[in-house]
Amino acid sequence: MPIGQRTLQVKFTMPNGSIVTLDDTLDLHVHIKRNAYVTQTVADITVTNLSQTLRQTLLSRINAYTNNRVQIGTANGAQIESAWIPVEIVAGYAQPSNTTVGASYQTATNAAPIFTGQAFLSRPIGDFPNMGVNILAATNQVDKTRVPTAWPGGQQTFAYMVQWVASQIGCNYICNTSVNDVLVTNPFSGAIYVGQLVKELAALVPAIGPRVEVFIDMDGTLVARDLGATIANQAAITVDEFIGQVGATEQGIRFKTLLDPRIRLISNVQVQSTQSPWFNSIGWVPFSLEYDLTSRDEAFYLTVDAVPPANAVLAF
């Protein structure tokens, strides 16, 4: 993948509808760990040099007290209005406008959203003149306090349940499992809020057949797939530059590379390692992506944990 000038943006949609973008003019540190076994992803954002107005807005609207009231409390019998702020994190590289030495850079051409969710907590860190703000955001945070509009019939296929959950969340879905046609009974009897549906969907799996991963990918798509299954029409992404060595884990492999915004949990990743060529023979299916991104420091890394594709046997 061609590497240009890196770009990192954190975009907040403020209560008045305006979009505030934090970029490399500020000292940004972003850590995200996305896992196919976890239904909610958390982004940890730290920024210094914020304007006083924005810092005060964040700290007053999303803090431990307001978040706790929304999570557990009601006011006069009605659910307390969410104070959460929508946030999108975009990262990638700007490509040179031409090949001459000292070429200027255009707007990033391969930057992509790597996180979309809601900021729910902020706190001050440090002290003046270098006071910063630490912000926590989570995917589908709003669904924790939203009640489903209707409930499915008492017995439906697993594929129908995936489709129904996606409709309640308001997202696209991919259902690529060997249990699509298996009937399930009263699957969401313990759910009250929309935010519980994905977790309960995943909990159905042990009773109906092979292990299935249920997660929401970085573009908001609800994905249900057999463990290690590749998604159709996903072209292989080749990774041949690493930070450190590619290593074996209990489940498959782990490697660290410079951020590649193309890699998603539904990707087919082809490793090309000169130091560990025995990993090069198959395509790998990611189940965990860990981002360590900064605007000014050295780190701009992606750590990938992946398993062999279903039924593949890795020969050393």
Topology (SSEs and partners):
Layout (H helix, E strand, L loop, with lengths): L4 E9 L5 E4 L4 E9 L6 E7 L3 H10 L2 H9 L1 E2 L2 E2 L5 E10 L17 E14 L6 E7 L16 E3 H12 L3 E4 L6 E3 L11 H12 L3 E5 L5 E5 L9 E4 L7 E2 L4 E6 L9 E4 L11 E12 L5 E8 L9
Parallel strand pairs: 11-14, 15-18
Antiparallel strand pairs: 1-2, 1-7, 3-4, 3-19, 4-9, 5-6, 7-8, 8-9, 10-12, 13-14, 16-17, 17-20, 18-19, 19-20
Walk me through what this model shows.
This protein has 316 residues and is mostly beta strands. It has three domains: 138 residues, Phage tail proteins - horseshoe like beta roll fold (Roll); 72 residues, Baseplate protein-like domains (Phage tail protein beta-alpha-beta fold); 72 residues. It has four helices and 20 strands. The strands form four sheets. Strands 1, 2, 3, 4, 7, 8, 9, 15, 16, 17, 18, 19 and 20 form a 13-stranded mixed beta sheet that branches. The chain has a three-stranded mixed beta sheet with strand order 11-14-13. It has a two-stranded antiparallel ribbon with strand order 5-6. It is flat, with a radius of gyration of 21 Å. The two termini are 28 Å apart.
